[in-house]
Amino acid sequence: MGSAKKKESAERKARIAEMRRAEQARERRNRILTIGASVAVVTALVVGAVVLVQSQGDDSSTASDSKNPGHWTTGKDGVKTWSAKLSQTHVTKTVKYPMTPPAGGDHNAVWQNCNGDVYTKALDDMNAVHSLEHGAVWVTYTSKAKKSDVDALAAKVKATPYTLMSPYEGQADPIMLTAWGHQRTVTSASDPNVAKFFEKYVQGEQTPEKGAVCTGGKAQ
User: Fold this and answer.
1) What is the average per-residue pLDDT within 130-155?
2) DSSP state of 112
3) Strand pairing category for 80-82 and 72-74
4) Is-contact 178 132, C-beta < 8 A?
5) pLDDT tens track for 64-100
6) CATH architecture group of domain 63-201
7) Given the DSSP bridges, would you call strands 163-167 and 115-118 parallel, antiparallel or unpaired?
8) Sign of the C-alpha dihedral, residues 51, 57, 58, 62?
9) Torsion angles phi and psi, residue 25, rounded to 5
10) What's the average model confidence in pLDDT over 25-36?
11) CB of 134 within 8 A of CB of 107?
12) What is the DSSP letter of 77?
């Protein structure tokens, strides 16, 4: 009888010990799971913060040259040159350029077709700036330009690869010529400075990506 009770007591102790071991194992698993979940949450928060900062950094490019502000300096030949290095980052946010028309800076990843292309509607600055990066000269004019000059300039552009032309009402003068980092006003289509500008700046030394294509981009 006493032996049976001792045996029962021993078995009960063994079951209790097993239950305690099981409970301790569950507690360890729960702690591991809790720690793992906490690490995952912290990681997600860190990644989210990085993405947010990067996104805000992209937004800050709305003023492409704010990091390296510059100004125009005018040479004896009448050509203006931007004093600071112009950035070349591809961005999706709208860029606010410090000059009109823009002569360089951050721009859209797609260039405006510039293989002697003449446009009758205003272009997106960000696409046209990409064309300048490829070595194009951009001819722009306002409604104050004479029709005869517009027609003559259009004919010249159509005959010249790595050029493009479009109306641009926001500029200071009726007819302007722009290359990457360079710009000038001309008085008319017959102004000899038109030919000089084309000769020097179409695929000129200022070109950041000389030889890059001017076709296969944005058509309008």
Assistant:
1) 98
2) B
3) antiparallel
4) yes
5) 444 558 999 999 999 999 999 999 999 999 999 999 9
6) 3-Layer(aba) Sandwich (3.40)
7) parallel
8) positive
9) -65, -40
10) 57
11) no
12) T
